[in-house]
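>> Question from a student workshop board

For tomorrow's exercise we were told to take the sequence and the ligand below, predict the bound structure, and bring the output to class. My setup keeps failing. Could a helper post the expected result so I can at least see what it should look like? The ligand is serine.
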Amino acid sequence: MCQQFPKGIPKYQENTTYIIKDMKNILVVGAGGQIGSELVPYLRNIYGDSHVVAADLNCAPCMKLGENGPLENLDALDGKQYAEIVKKYKIDAIFNLVALLSATGEKNPQLAWKINMGALMNSLEIARENGAALFTPSSIGAFGNNTPHDGTPQDTIMHPSTIYGVCKVTGELLGDYYHQRFGVDARSVRFPGIISNETLPGGGTTDYAVEVYYAAVKGEQFTCPLPEGTYLDMMYMPDALKACVQLMEADPSKLKHRNSFNISAMSFEPSQILAAIQKRMPEFKMVYNVDPIKKAIAESWPNYMDDTCARNEWGWNPTWNLETMTDDMLKVIADKHAKGLLK
Ligand code: SER
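>> Workshop helper replied:
Here is what the output should look like for this input. Compare the format with yours to find the bug.
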């Protein structure tokens, strides 16, 4: 059952009609990162190259995104510059992907708060002022030790133990607050670890599940930082991209939740991804050298989430599993390796 939680939140402005527009002009902030570098081309395919603006703090590594559409240098903490870009391109939907991930966040919690919350607050305010819709991902990292770990419900105890998670929970609350208080069309999903082959993630607890494929293709032994038996939700990038668009295009009258939906595609632990790779590359080897911080973080997160509400409210339905993803990851990375494109 997908009940709104908490029930009966008063609308501050009873007469607000939520203006839900089609996404026409989209801004992706943090476009050079793991998700952004693939979300920008994905959105450009759907909405047209000139209608999707890529923005990042440092465009140099993501110049590719400027080849067939607009690319802007943007420090998301600079609200003035951010607002100017939104006005310049008449943006009506923002994807705010700016974040320090969980393991990096623990090295400098103050900086993580400053960046993650600074970018979010600017995004919310600019969305409010310009009538734009806003997508900001939440994460499995929003949950904590007291959360039920198996079949983690949509609405349950959060209480994360990382600064990353504290930012995510705060972000979820702010997204709902801005929706209820100001009518901002804010929507979000709790992403699992995302596995991809375009841009490497950096500083996350789930990164091992990406790095292991690169090691396999390069013929290297992989050292896994999480212990055997650590189950985590994971998702292949094509499903993550599909989720972003599906949720932002969803009929708002069907959404009982907004910030943020559990979405899941697969759950596995390190020895299972090892087995999937070894099935295709029997010579591949993995050893364990556990990172105590990553271990503690991973153990505080769900083993697998219940994503029934996302399925019921906006038709979430993932396509990829560990086997099909492994086939594709190894093929794509091997092609790049053969072309000398891997560092
Ligand atoms: N992939 C993120 C991390 O590991 C979780 O959302 O930090």
